[in-house]
Batch of 2 targets.
Target 1
Amino acid sequence: MPAMTMVQAINNALREEMRRDDRVIVLGEDVGRNGGVFRCTEGLIDEFPERVFDTPLAEGGIIGTSIGMALYGLRPVPEIQFMDFIYPAFDQIVSEAAKMRYRSGGQFTVPMTIRTPFGGGIRGGHYHSQSSEAYFCHTPGLKVVVPSTPKEAKGLLTASIRDPDPVLFLEPKKLYRAVREEVPEGEVLVPLGQAAVRRPGKDVTLVAYGYMAQVCLDAAAKAAEKGVEAEVIDLRTLVPLDESAVLASVKKTGRAVLVYEAPRTGGFGAEISAILAEKAIEYLRGPIVRVTGFDTPFPYTLEDVYMPNADRVLAAIDRVMAF
Amino acid sequence: MVDALRVIRDDGSTDPRLDPKLPEKEALRLYRGMCLQRILDSRMLALQRQGRIGFYGPSLGQEAAIVGGAIAMQPDDWIVPQYREPGAALVRGMPLKDLLCQLIGNSEDPVHGRQMPCHYVYRKGNYLSISSPVGTQLPHAVGIAWAMRLRREAHAVLVFFGDGATSTADFHSAMNFAGVFRAPVVFLCNNNQWAISVPVAKQTASGTLAEKAAAYGFDGIRVDGMDALAVYRATREAADRARDSGGPTMVEAVTYRLGPHSSSDDPSRYRDEPEVASWRARDPLVRFRRYLEHAGLWDDAQEARLEQEIGDEITHAVQEAERAGPPSPDTLFTDVYAQMPGSLREQMQGLGVRGR
């Protein structure tokens, strides 16, 4: 079994799905000859010269034409080069792709997977670091998926491409080459809508996704040194949310720390917090605490101050444990 | 008069170099389609005023620019509407009753009352679902056409939009992608002079809309949008070329919205009656009828019969549609996703609604 980075696992998933299904089309900026600025699509154009397209530089056009392809029965996998550049396509995603099945009474559907690198940690400043998943999670009709390991990136991307609904697939670029993991050749599927318990624990639940899942694992390891057993839940799919996994863990531990790198106000962790308050308040032994980015634009030089890290998560754990 | 392709002369004769020589059956189908849209408009505006439907957007004045284009396409081609083209849906075979049920938003509405009136969809006729934001359908049309090309299927797409839409970013990216990927698409712009209250001169400093096509590397042609044969001819030529790997074409049909933008609009607030009257004098139905009469295909008795027939069809459809009740509450929750997520099921059950 080859060891792969997340970039290689994504490339492998795309290649295998393109071999399996000739309706799968890859398009976007620099995805052809250049193989994508992060190399996720490297070599695909050589094997599939008629199904990989370098497009004009227009995100609204990339998503808008992908919607058209999907309406006609293809399975487009457009890439938006950075999530920070997705906003020109916001209308197409929110008003068109997400609403097509509903507004047509199921007559037309948009099976499309939008891949885009997101999140901080690569010295990208305002416009190569954003984590704006909350805008999209607020949109009925759209699924939002975030892998955090190479193998699961393959499994989740494969499931996304085969999904009958539009999927926004957010790739944590801090993890693109951070680790290598054994990834099987051939079919790997991770069903959408299922969270994973990354580390079991009985004292406090840490809920995260993407790179923050890794940060939580680091924090949990440090907490263990102090005798606190933290359970780490990696959501993997934000919409549809695996609510039962979160509730089961928090009912067991009685404590919840929600970690996301997006700005704090209105972030996706706030939704988790509301669910816990509605459905598990009688189990809580301390306040629900968030560890997040700040309500500022994403900074360049002070990136490490902005991004949640293990120490900040640990401080939150201490706070809920001491309550 | 505008500098644009014109086929039917004032006396009803045609320019022999330009006449598309429509077979009699097609000519009558085209005329019927235009009359249906015209009569439907007046009946639906009346229904709206009586409070029997909530809203309506008439097409008055644009019948040639809509039906003339739609009828030029083949059944396997796709039509991507903006929102003022019920006439195109009807010539693609959409049942009048379905259209009425959509306007009412009842249990027999194909989209279960989810959209406000005039947002039709008809999958069987390859007639795409409509959204209200202007211009968003343009890149869809290009993507559909591009997919046809990738699948090596010799079909084409006709996309409708207005003068206002040419100002949008989606227009630019759609035209640009269509040019780069030589998508088999016909961009049929209904330049009806007004985007609600804003005249076309305030949308663009460009001399014409058709000339924008040149910047994207393909042809743009300007036609008299009050002349159904001119619209038909230009659309059919463009579609034939598209199916034959000749790439996209933009057709600017110079027309006029004789009525309000919608039942909520009062055009007297922004335009003068003499302007409207000058366009009313160029009524596309009158022009086409003159052509039919000149060709010996039409007379007063046939006209009366057609009006009666269409009137009866609409009356029947209204009666049928008004019999249906409201959509069942579970349709609020279905079709958001292929499979209803647990959270949504919980919301549905919280309302006391049982799923089917």
Target 2
Amino acid sequence: MAAKRVDPAANAAAFLDQDDIHEPAHDQNLWAARMKRDAAAKAIPEWEELRNIASQIKEHTLTHLDQYLEQFEANATKRGAKIYWARDAAEHNQHVWNILNERKISSIIKSKSMLQEECGMTQFLETRGITVTESDLGERIQQLDNQPPSHIVMPAIHKTPADIAKIFSKAIGTDPDNTDPHYLNEAMREDARKRFLQAGAGMTGANFAIAETGTFVVCTNEGNADIGAAVPRVHIASIGIEKILPKVTDLGIFIRLLSRSALGTLATQYTSHFSGPRKGGELHIIITDNGRSKRLGMDDFWHSLKCIRCGACMNTCPVYRRSGGLSYGATYSGPIGIILDPTFDESKYSELPYHSTLCGSCTDVCPVKIDISDQILRWRKVMAEKKYLPISRRLAFTAAGRIFERPTLFHGVETVASAALKITPHFLLYNRALNPWGRHRELPHFAKQTFREWFMQYKLKNQEDKQQP
Amino acid sequence: MNPREQIFDAVRNHLPAEKIDYPQIPVFQKTITELLPAFEERLLEAGATFFLPADLKEAQQLLVQQHGGGSVICSATPDIKGNRDIRKVKNPHELADVDVGVIRASFGVAENGMVWLTEEDLVVNALGFLSQHLVILLKPTALVADMYDAYVKVSLEDTAYGCFMMGPSATADIGAVLVHGAQGARSLSVYLV
């Protein structure tokens, strides 16, 4: 059975309409990150050159991906890691389960991994009796609220401290009225500590994987990935095949770009390099395809594989900031989500390419120069060609096509629309339920005359003038 | 074909036709000339603090002064004495009650205030993350300007684990408010000695 089509506009309306607190706070917090990103970028004279180089290194790696994957595998194996290959989410999850089951491990602590989200790993393991604890604070909040992350690097950014105080009071017995982030953080730190010490395995993702040395790099601000890797005996890492970089020195470029683009900070607090199992420990690396090789073969879309998951495109996107990440109904939200999600399910995510103004800001801030807005437009073309458009939009476009084809009809409609707007009551145009987008926007005023009316009048007058002796 | 071969097959069949060359990477002009003051400034920005003890004896006194006598102090460096012997630790869980971890870093990065810690420096990796507070010893001359130089200096071939640590643990996941001490160390002091 085909998955139900996601309706991002309706989801966004729900986010906008819940109150007058969430959407403005969300918008402000993300815009603040965008401003910090600009300041951090400006402080590096070679910033634009770095973006070019990073883009080219990624393109080079992706066009030679088989060689670099082999090199990574050989070097990581030599250093004592055990490598597993997973074609899809099911194989990925099965590998994890086998590793845990063989060792009779019943609880794990994990840091943030978009790939593990993509694979639905937590749910898979929970149905098999494994206790899974997210250790990133934002991810933990989302886990306790039974929601996926709404942002790649700020998973709970759509929630207010008051929301989080409520969730924590239910889950770990904090004071529901105390919304102080320091207090809430401290309470969760205490709760997570016990779980770190009880866990039989720690799981991480990876930001980069270095072919030259078989190393993978994990960036966090909390140090949670490092605790997970350093305390339990078993470390399992999930790595997408597109995470490869050729050389160690490439990291000099990518680490400079990553956190500056994400949050405007000079780096994450922890940039950790795993080149083998720690003393007395085990290291398992699951290299996962899950649709990436197919994407590599898509002429129009393979550049999306360059993504380093910084979230800059989300922070800058006027639609994302207003509608919240959950409105995309997918693992990846925001502009990058619009171009990644349809590669997993075209029908389910066929509406996403329309959840954009095509303003191009995402393309401008992307640290690896993915042509995100162009790809969004190309996805619209795909959706139209495959007739994924919802009936209402298809009829509207067909009607528009007919009207534009016939000049007389167009002129008539133009005048009527202008007149209709004059008499349409304000409450109808700006009604929250009917048109949530109209809430903070005024429609442009129609000119008193259409251009054609003005031109005909002018032409007539001109002819009259000429006729005068 | 096994899954590994199938993935390689799929990748090879889908490789873009046009091969992109690895780019020429220029040597960028250094923007930082005075490494130590830049490093100190960036440490503060990252939420860390720094001290300039005259010698190791003074560093030892500073540690007691900073963290009191009743703390569990575990030192991974022979330069500072603690009261928990890291060489006797068999299992990382034994470090769960450590108040202060003391580690000597081999170098720091002026661009951002990072210090480089390897498995050999930490002795037991968990010391860097279970300790409530960290004291990092660093020679004030052991600095590189930026990440380009830093990645020339690390030798990932020689260690199973290495971490660039930039100040204490941090989060802004609740209301975008910066809080230190999310999961890792609550504070990080660098003793430049």
